[in-house]
Design goal:
Elements: H1 7-19, E1 26-29, E2 38-44, E3 47-53, H2 69-75, H3 77-81, H4 88-100, E4 108-112, E5 117-121, H5 128-133, H6 138-154, E6 160-163, E7 166-169, H7 175-182, H8 184-192, H9 202-218, E8 222-225, E9 234-236, E10 246-248, E11 255-258, H10 259-267, H11 276-290, H12 294-321, H13 332-342, H14 349-358, H15 361-364
Antiparallel strand pairs: 1-2, 2-3, 3-5, 4-5, 6-7, 8-11, 9-10
Helix pairs in contact: 6-11, 7-9, 7-12, 8-12, 9-12, 9-14, 10-12, 12-13
Length: 365
């Protein structure tokens, strides 16, 4: 097995796999997205597994629940935004919680928190986005995925989860985390696209409005927010039943936050178009199952969708300009469309005015 060019890391992986009873395996790399984690599919005796390789040194470490706002700012990106920094204990603990409520997170076969290694059940490669591209009916898999999200949101939200002797906190998606994400837009996008300019006191106005909207989101009832729930992180498992047909990946950054965020992330997908009729149907279904007030949820959905769209547009601009990943250009028009759609809500009138001043093309496109 040839996993890495770094001989020390390769030796750690081989030792970890040997202790898990997996020596002399064949390995196939799995395509990565915008993560510092690395995955391989391991095959032995016609059975496959997934290796998650997440060296702790690859990322700034997260902050615990007792960290002050100043501590989090000094700690860096993961501290400010309450990301898990690819910590294995976060993945293991949250995955165990999801399985305990009847959802299909991959089984953990072995893990080593200190070395950042995890051996997982292989849920296969039937990624939602690829399945739809190949002709599978969109509604037939999005409806059970919406039901899986409803299950996660209606189940009691834990404050902590465990991974062996490790305890991982499920923190609130608070104002600092929300505003830090939305700040990526004015920080990265104007340098990327000369059509966008924050001149005069417009940047201060933007900060004030984003702070107000973020504060509103923090006051909403809190659910387990999976945070990155979309068609590239869902695996279709037709041999299973009900919500277990939806394999869930990339949930280690879960926090406690507003339900509307996850639903907007799911239906306002940056990488593929979800049909408007299906979006409307699944929002109605979500409301019927959860009991949220339609008008209130519509407002919160628009706010969460807009704040998230600004974050995503900023992330994509950073990935393109700083990290040299031009493929993210393909997703920007769709994400601008999501932002414009959300800005039509009356609760976002101030943000709309600011953004139409900074980006006049929003008025006409």
């Amino acid at each position: 097995m040839n996993t890495l060019t770094d001989p020390d890391r390769s030796a750690e992986i081989l030792d970890f796999l040997s202790q898990a009873g997996l020596s002399d395996v064949r390995s196939d790399p799995i395509n990565q997205d915008a993560s510092t984690r690395r995955y391989e599919r391991l095959i032995k005796d016609d059975k496959s597994y997934i290796l998650m390789d997440a060296p702790p040194a690859n990322e700034e470490q997260p902050c615990g629940p007792d960290a002050s706002e100043r501590d989090r700012i000094l700690a860096g990106w993961n501290g400010r935004t309450r990301l898990a920094a690819s910590r294995v204990d976060a993945f293991v603990g949250i995955g165990e919680h999801l399985r305990s409520i009847g959802l299909s997170a991959p089984e953990v076969l072995a893990f080593d928190v200190e070395r950042g290694l995890c051996l997982l059940e292989d849920l296969g490669n039937r990624v939602f986005a690829r399945e739809i591209e190949q002709g599978l009916d969109e509604r037939s898999i999005y409806r059970p995925a919406a039901d899986a999200l409803i299950r996660a949101h209606l189940s009691p939200t834990p404050h902590t989860v465990t991974a062996g002797d490790y305890i991982w906190p499920i923190l609130d998606y608070d104002r600092l985390a929300l505003t830090t994400g939305a700040d990526l837009f004015p920080k990265w996008y104007p340098a990327f696209d000369e059509r966008v300019r924050f001149s005069g006191d417009l940047a201060a106005q933007y900060d004030d409005v984003i702070a107000t909207l973020s504060e509103h989101l923090t006051r909403l009832p809190k659910v387990l927010l999976l945070r990155d729930y979309h068609a590239e992180n869902l695996i279709w498992l037709p041999e299973r039943s009900d919500v277990q047909r939806v394999g869930i990946l990339d949930f280690q950054d879960a926090v406690r936050g507003p339900a509307a965020w996850d639903l907007a992330m799911f239906l306002q997908d940056a990488r593929r178009d979800v049909s408007p009729d299906l979006q409307a149907e699944l929002i109605d279904h979500y409301l019927a199952e959860t009991g949220y007030d339609s008008a209130d949820f519509g407002r919160d959905y628009a706010i969460a969708g807009a704040v998230n769209a600004l974050r995503i547009i900023g992330v994509f601009a950073r990935l393109i300009s700083r990290d040299g990943k031009p493929r993210y250009n393909d997703f920007l028009p769709r994400e601008w469309g999501h932002l414009k759609q959300n800005l039509q809500h009356e609760a976002l009138a101030d943000l709309r005015r600011i953004l139409e001043t900074a980006a006049p093309f929003l008025k006409s496109e």
